[in-house]
Design a protein that fits this description.
The chain is an all-alpha fold. 80% of the residues lie in helices and 0% in strands. 23% of the residues are buried.
């Protein structure tokens, strides 16, 4: 039986920690978030993680008479990684992060599907909002910079965004505490 409240508690604590850092050090957070899309190393690592995770998911599927095609994954994953890293280097970090987060949504939803607690709904809403945001940023990664520009247009807006994020994390923590 999955421990949905524990999963919700960990997610809530991570969200609160990130937004607390955002509240305490807004300039450092802004610099890191603005530099991230053009930083190649995380994009290359997350692309590899995403491709391996996707290949592992495909490996679990029964293709019947076409199962022999699974062996092609051992060639397709490294070749695909090389092609993506070589020919799509612009904003690769944002795209790769979104791809990995999209893959991460499935296990969270599967683990919490039949639990029937408030934590289930908090995690489900969070995951579906994250999926929508990631699909949008996967297609339009340049909106990362626009979103940051909007968020940091004033000190008050940045504080409001960090307080809103911390509030979301606290709601998830409360749902997890109620579910224990």
């Amino acid at each position: 039986m999955p421990n949905t409240p524990l999963i919700a508690l960990i997610i809530g604590l991570l969200i609160v920690a990130v937004y607390l850092f955002f509240l305490l050090k807004p300039h450092a957070m802004r610099e890191a978030l603005e530099a991230y899309p053009r930083w190649a190393l995380p994009g290359q690592i997350l692309t590899a993680v995403g491709l391996v995770w996707f290949a592992w998911n495909l490996w679990q599927v029964d293709f019947g008479g076409l199962s022999w095609l699974k062996n092609l994954l051992f060639v397709a994953v490294p070749v695909g990684w090389y092609l993506v890293v070589t020919f799509i280097p612009d904003l690769l970090s944002v795209r790769a992060l979104c791809g990995v987060l999209l893959l991460a949504g499935n296990p969270l939803l599967v683990q919490t599907r039949w639990h029937g607690t408030p934590a289930q709904f908090a995690i489900g809403i969070l995951v579906y909002l994250l999926i929508i945001k990631c699909m949008f940023l996967l297609v339009y990664p340049h909106y990362w910079k626009r979103g940051l520009a909007w968020m940091f247009v004033s000190e008050n807006r940045a504080r409001a965004m960090s307080c809103t994020g911390m509030g979301l994390g606290m709601v998830i923590i409360v749902c997890a505490a109620i579910s224990f």
